[in-house]
Amino acid sequence: MDQPNQSPTWPTEFINAETGRAYTPHHAEERAFVEADGPRYGLGKGGEGGGKSVMGIVKNLARLKRGCSGIMVSPDFEHFKKSLWPEFRRWCPASALVEKDRYRLAAEWEATRPFELHFHDQAGSVTTLYCGGIEDPSGWEGPNVNFAHFDEARRHRTAAALKVLDGRVRIPGPGGIAPQLYLTTTPAKHWLYDFFGPVVADDERAAFKADARVVTLLTADNERAGNLEQGFTSKRRQSLTEAEARVLLEAEWEDIDTTTRFLPSMTLWDACRETLPALGAREPMVVALDAGVSNDSFGMVGVTRHPERRRDVAARFIQEWIPPKRGTLDFRGTDDYPGPEMVLRRLCRDYNVVQVCYDPYQLVDMANRLTSEGVAWFRAFAQGGDRLEADKQLLDLITQRRLTHDGHLGLRQHIDNADRKPDPETRKLRIVKREGALKVDLAVSLSMACYECLRLDL
């Protein structure tokens, strides 16, 4: 082995040997993940191609440079050989390796078993990186190190590897550099969520979570940084369900092993169909708007209390607008094809619309204009907690047959297109699309309208 006390041979920044581009964090949270010596635990969860493995690799190299030895593992050796190692090789500066190990960076060299790499640190000593797969966590109970990096940890079904690595990370680095264990992975809602998800009531992992940093890297951010093919994110989304896209591109906590429809059976919806008397001009009605401009539809739903069962609700007005294939939807429309604004004005003129609630994403301008004209009372409907409550309430109204509709085919289709996304903190849920091309705007409008109709003293 090369002897210590040689001159430092580290570059001032880490460069991808294939592209020539320097490593640049996407945001301050990523920079802190790489540079900070605490807390003890870290999770870099990211979408496919989001740069999470590179983030972990750069952190490894920075620690080796500072005189710390560590472990770098994949869930199995095949993953290490085909994924983590080729990425590491792109970023590893050959000049920092001891001379006898540099041959491993050659493209034709292939690992056949776990191995060690040795580096000259910036002080002239030698540090070690233990490399391989962690199929059998007990096989890694030997080395005592300053850091451990576990890539694509979601592929392990239990936390056994984390627990073994946690026991190995116990040697302070030069000057007291604190030991750290960090994972870089696409998220999975199993043990990873138990250890790194939000704190819940009576959380047995609360102390661990308080000593952990979680950062999120989006696929789209890495595309915008020029590290992926232009348009990769939208193209990749074409082959995914919406739930899969939220996990594999947006790194959200969600279980994609099973898909949960909003309604377990559409017979529940069909059972709510009922013939109602015509809507009277004085019957208080709440109208809800959920807008898409270029890639989604515009939904408008009016809801009243049921004329006989006042604790129940009834869908009384339903209309959907589809934007043109090229261009955006004209909210005002024309006399031949009235847009949402013209139709809403007529509703407010002819019926007793007591409130118009709306998703503020696209509709603030229209709501402000119509409010200033005194057309109706408008309320921006928060798409966070209020939506979670409203969507859960809509599910309950349908399953308890407390909602009545006339069988409108468009609304039925939007309900059928919807999946439910549970919220782990509140045990409520959000209506989401099953597939990117499917529309759920009428279902969302119905949810908001029912919520406001029951909230108000009508």
- Structural class by sheet pairing and helices: alpha/beta
Tally of structural domains: 2
* Known CATH architecture of the largest domain: 3-Layer(aba) Sandwich
- In the CATH scheme, what's the topology name of the largest domain? Rossmann fold
User: Total number of β-strand segments?
Assistant: 15
Helix proportion: 25-40%
Order of helices and strands: HEHEHEEEHEHHEHHHHEEEHEHEHEHEEH
3D structure, described in words:
The protein is of the alpha/beta class. It folds into two domains: 28-248, P-loop containing nucleotide triphosphate hydrolases (Rossmann fold, 3-Layer(aba) Sandwich); 267-455, Nucleotidyltransferase, domain 5 (2-Layer Sandwich), CATH 3.30.420.240. Helix content is 31%, strand content 19%. It contains 15 helices and 15 strands. It has a seven-stranded mixed β-sheet with strand order 3-4-2-5-6-1-7, sandwiched between helices. The chain has a six-stranded mixed β-sheet with strand order 12-11-8-9-10-13. It has a two-stranded antiparallel ribbon with strand order 14-15. A hairpin with a 7-residue loop joins strand 8 and strand 9 (298-305). Helix 2 crosses helix 3 (77-91).
